[in-house]
Structure prediction request, 434 residues.
Amino acid sequence: MKRLLLLIAIIAGVGMAGDNWPQWRGPNLDGTTSATGLPVTWSTTENVIWKTKLPSWAAATPIIWGDTVFVTSAEEGSSLNRPNSRLAEGGDSARDKLYLIAIDRETGGVRWQRSIGTGNRIGNKQNMASPSPVTDGEHVWVVNGNGELRCFDFAGSQVWMREMQKDYGKFGVQFGYASSPLLHHGVLYLQNLQGMYTDDPSYVLAIDAASGKTIWKVDRPTDGLHETPDSYSTATLARVAGEFILIVSGGGYVTGHDLKSGKEIWRAGGLNPDNARNYRTIASSIVVGDIVLVPSRRRPFIAFRTDGKGDVTDSKRLWSTEYGPDVPTPTSDGERLYIIGDRGIVLNLNVSDGSTVWDRTRIEPGTYSASPLLADGKLYAISEDGTTTVMKAGDEFEILAVNRLGEYTLASPAEAGNRIFIRTAEYLYCIGMQ
Prediction:
């Protein structure tokens, strides 16, 4: 199964596992790589290859290709240095710029910093630098929370820019747009699932990565009310009968779309069984073979087959659990599903039938917003306190180490070149064996 996932990633053109981390959930779109020799223990000094000071905080994951690491950031000196009660005192609220920063992977030196817009604002745990970039090794694409989508080359020159709100209407997501672009065969796929602050329909976009021109745009309807249409998730891919389809989750549904036209192939519901008005979606779906694993707002978490047509709510439903995540997106080794709950409860299930491998187990206390990394036979889960619990992946639960950086952390860790990259509110850390 794992070899199948790697083959899918290579065919998808998203980079080789263990070498690059080209988009938010990495080369396999599920938070995994085939890397070995990764560090188990670290501190602010131990096994730190380098750390680079960043202007401000962001929830976006570092994106890595070759010798370059890309991160987004709010402007230095902004009063929006930390979410909620963590707001810094004495900042200048007029400093509202957003940046894309290119960093040398070997040294940590900053190569260039480019503006990706203004109008930064805070929404709960995110600012307008929340979406992660995506790269193909020649260009890097980044969208900010105000819907400005840009393409840069690796030298930092802007190639093109689009304004999604100008083209398609004001965003209506309560806490600000945060979905990351998905890149596949030269096409960017973006979703804008919304409803809290607008009556405009949700939609899905396909954009030519080279020119920035729209290939197609389709509405993505929902009968969800109030906040339920809002989704902060990112689209992913599934392969059905030799062809890839786009998977979009939010608004109480998961849908499969034709890549060439955007047409909805199938739709599965049941993710908001009580028709609640606050069932916004944060965690993204992941695909394992012919199964899509779909979070909601903690419960239910449902597994569906990906080969359906029309309404597949019942016909393609495999299993469900009441112990899904709210914010962290799960990961899988192809056989087991690893769920990290927001309160630090870890659950290991069999992908095929949802049966328990090891039951809910508490790891280091804290709030967990970052999605886990699965690599080298280990599961890495990082809390908002910057504490990473390293667990042994497999059939037996075992904590291998607890590593503390002591810095506010929302971004999911990335891996490339046998090193782990962790973006805290203050620094980008490159961690490896020394």
Summary: Helices lie at 2-11, 164-168. The first strand starts at residue 48 and ends at 53.
